[in-house]
Each structure stands twice: as structure tokens, then as C-alpha cells.
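User: My instructor asked us to take a sequence, write out its structure as C-alpha cells, and then describe one feature of it. I'm not sure where to start. Here is the sequence I was given:
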Amino acid sequence: MPETQLEERRNREIPIFFAVDDGYCPFLAVALQSMIDNSSPENLYRIKVLQTDISEENKRKLSRYERENVSIEFVDLNYYIEKIKDKLYTRDYYSKNTYFRLFIPNLYPQYDKVLYLDSDIVILDDIAKLFHMDMGNNLVAAAPDDIIQFNPVFQTYVEKVVGVADYRCYFNAGVLLMNLHQLRRYKFQEKFVYLLDKIKFSVAQDQDYLNRLCKGRVKLIDRTWNRMPIEDPKIRLEDVKLVHYNLAFKPWHFEEILYKEFFWMYAQETEYFDKIQAIRENYTEEERFRDARNHEKLKKLAKRESDCVGDDRKNRR
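Assistant: Let's start with the prediction itself. The C-alpha cells for your sequence are:
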């Protein structure tokens, strides 16, 4: 292929990474369905699914989302995290897969920029628009975390414990444009592994590490590209480009979730629809009560950690 054609092909490529365990494959299918339904034939979507335990059956089902301009590759990271997996702290319903995004810069030296997306999302616009956003020399581009923006306990935590100068700069890492070239120059993975031995962030785990390591080199993007199901009169429904059903805001667990109609619209297009409905129907009141308690426990944990740190913020402003 001539060099000009190769360059044109590279410019059309959109590398997109997910990280899931076997149980989350139905929701990844919904995310993929929404992405494809809003994609452009002008782009080549190169999807990499980082995983350690996806079954062959789920791989076959998810591979059916491949199109002429959509490829899907399953990347087994068992070998890669073997030496540090015991250091990757998790709590509640989280799995260690959430840390996989931190290894992308070193795993994929052929890429200078990629998108990382959580799987509990639906995409309502062409994700290529986010990929092509100019991020300068920043390490990442991401939206401010809505959970932090509306809760004083978490605002104090991210400023005092994580160390961001202003809670409004603390970003959610579930929708992440990553400048791999700059992250490699910064020796990001080396610094992350070093921090694992020094600091344990137990509230938002890998997201806290990302905010700690990248602070000062973050491009904040519009929250319509990472819209959480929290009421906000400033954001119009027609402007929302991506919905992120994070934490306990799961329409497959609860009935009254903002933007649930988008999730079910794409879910019914997947072959996992019956399974997802069964998950909703079999989710018990005890489990719903536990989810509600987990949020309160998380706030208490954030406050406890904040109370263990001195406060010099008035001297920085």
C-alpha cells in the first residue's frame, strides 16, 4: 500500500479500549451497539477489549459486532499483571480490570492517542468526535466527575487526600482520551507502580491515582461527553452525547434512573436483552438496599480519610 494511503488509513483509525470481566459482557454489548449505531463509515473503529477471564461464548457473541470498519480484539492481560495484581486494591463490586487502562501507554507503543471507555455507558453521538479533540500536550482529556461536583464530602476528599488543587478539576476516568505519547514521556506506568507501594487510594482507586499523577496536565471536556444520571438543569437532554451509568446508577438494577430509556433502547437490539432483563427482575430488594448503603459507606470512608489529613487549602488560594 502506498505511503499516502497508509497515512490516510492511520488518520481514519479510532483506537478504543474497554476493560471487562466475563459478567460485564452484556453491558459491553449495549455500549458497542450504541457506538456502532452512531458511527460513521468514514472512520475505522479499532476496539481492544482488555480482559483476563472472558469466556469463548461471550467472545463469539461480542465478535458479531465487527463490521467492515469495526474490528474487535480480545487482549488477555493475565501475564502482564501477574507481578502486581496483589497490589491492585479493590472494594465492593469493583474488579481489578478497572486498573487495566493504566497500562495502555506501555502496552501499545504504536499509538500516540487512544480512547478508554467504561462499559456501563451508551454513546449517543459519533465517538470519533471525542477522539479528534485537540488535547495539546496534556496527559489526558476527561470530564469533571459529577459525583464530586455535587457533594461537599467528596470535594474535600479529592482536594485534601488526592491532592488536586480544586475539586472542579477532578475528572472521571470512565471516559478518557489518553495522550499515550506524553504519558510514555512522563513515565506514567513507572510512577503508578511506584505509588502503589506508597499510597493506597481506597475511595476511587485507580481514578484517584490518575488524578494524582496527571494533575496540572488535564484537559477538561464538556460533561455532555460523560453525563451521569444526576439531575442538572444546566444540561439539556438533546446535548447529551454519552451517558455513564456509574456507581449504583444502573438501569438494570433500579427502575427510576435518569436516561434509562437510552440504555433499554440499545439493550433490546442486542442478543443479551433477555439476560439483562433477567438480571433486573432477579435483583433483590436486599441488593438494592446494599447499593444504597455502599454510597453512604463511601462518603464515610472519604470523610474518615479527609479527617486524617491536615488542611492548608486556604493558603493555596
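For the description part of your assignment, you could build on this observation: The chain has one domain: 3-315. Try explaining in your own words what that tells you about the chain.
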